[in-house]
């Protein structure tokens, strides 16, 4: 699938690769193709797609492709592009690289930022509150990479690619290549990639361990696509998990996932309201005997 993606963006008809909707179409097609493989080559029966999971996954896929994508463009990519222009920053050396080298560089830049953002989310409580809903999923499939709190989905989409002058097809090829790798890294597909592949790229074994029920075991294998970064920075761990989820594998609804980062504030407010109601009740009880007398 990676080879097909690269061939499409390198040699595909210009009417297709230059179409403004090309990336919007190819990205979900990759996920759908891997989901189809789950039906014929299932890894774990307990991860099998059902109606509830399908509706949830579809909601987040649409959310990521619309609102999250729009926010990333307006709040991150456009300002970076404007900053680049105002400072006169040029990176023409990027366009002089061979096409495959541009693809590899774009993947590394994207994944390097996502690795450290992901690691931060596991090691600092305010960020963990945004990321925890992604770890409350109780099964893995090819669409689960898009499931999570909207704040996390926005943060993990941030990058500095707008500061570089990539060939557009190389950039889109990089995004789709990462889509293939990350889809398989979440997929319920029985597959054993070759050793050389799993040395560089994240597989379902690596990522299922990251989603295991023991929180301490999740603090490893942060690479969404490049497990090589975990090997370099000392966060790689070998193993595989079948049971995934947090807090006794409690599955969160879409509403619970959305409100999760604000739950401490909500609970504090509810406790304050309960205490205030208790004080008002106590005050009314004290006044009632006096009125009776």
Automatic annotation (TrEMBL):
Provide the transmembrane region boundaries. Answer: 20-37, 58-76, 96-117
The alphabetized UniProt keywords are: Membrane, Transmembrane, Transmembrane helix
Annotated Fatty acid hydroxylase domain ranges read: 104-235
Which InterPro entries does the record associate with it? Fatty_acid_hydroxylase, Sterol_Desaturase_Related
Coiled coil (UniProt feature):
none
Q: What is its main location?
A: membrane
Q: Does the keyword Transmembrane helix apply?
A: yes
Localization recorded for this chain is:
Membrane
| Official protein name in the record | Sterol desaturase family protein
Q: State the species of origin.
A: Sphingobium naphthae
């Amino acid at each position: 699938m990676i080879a097909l993606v690269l061939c499409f963006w390198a040699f595909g008809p210009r009417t297709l690769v230059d179409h403004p909707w090309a990336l919007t179409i190819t990205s979900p097609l990759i996920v759908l193709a891997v989901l189809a493989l789950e039906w014929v080559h299932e890894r774990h029966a307990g991860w099998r797609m059902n109606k509830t999971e399908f509706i949830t996954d579809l909601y987040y896929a649409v959310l990521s492709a619309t609102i999250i994508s729009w926010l990333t463009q307006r709040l991150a990519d456009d300002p970076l592009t404007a900053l680049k222009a105002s400072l006169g920053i040029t990176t023409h050396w990027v366009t002089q690289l061979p096409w495959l080298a541009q693809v590899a560089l774009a993947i590394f830049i994207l994944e390097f930022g996502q690795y450290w953002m992901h690691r931060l989310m596991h090691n600092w409580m305010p960020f963990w509150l945004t990321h925890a809903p992604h770890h409350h999923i109780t099964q893995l499939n090819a669409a689960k990479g898009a499931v999570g709190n909207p704040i996390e989905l926005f943060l993990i989409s941030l990058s500095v690619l707008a500061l570089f002058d990539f060939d557009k097809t190389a950039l889109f090829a990089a995004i789709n290549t990462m889509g293939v790798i990350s889809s398989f890294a979440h997929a319920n597909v029985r597959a054993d990639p070759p050793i050389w592949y799993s040395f560089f790229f994240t597989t379902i074994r690596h990522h299922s361990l990251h989603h295991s029920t023991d929180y301490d075991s999740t603090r490893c294998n942060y690479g969404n696509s490049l497990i090589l970064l975990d090997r370099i920075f000392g966060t790689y761990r070998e193993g595989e998990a079948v049971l995934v989820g947090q807090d006794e594998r409690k599955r969160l609804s879409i509403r619970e996932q959305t409100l999760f980062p604000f739950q401490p504030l909500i609970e504090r407010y509810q406790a304050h309201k309960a205490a205030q109601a208790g004080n008002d009740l106590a005050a009314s009880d004290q006044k009632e005997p006096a009125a009776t007398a």
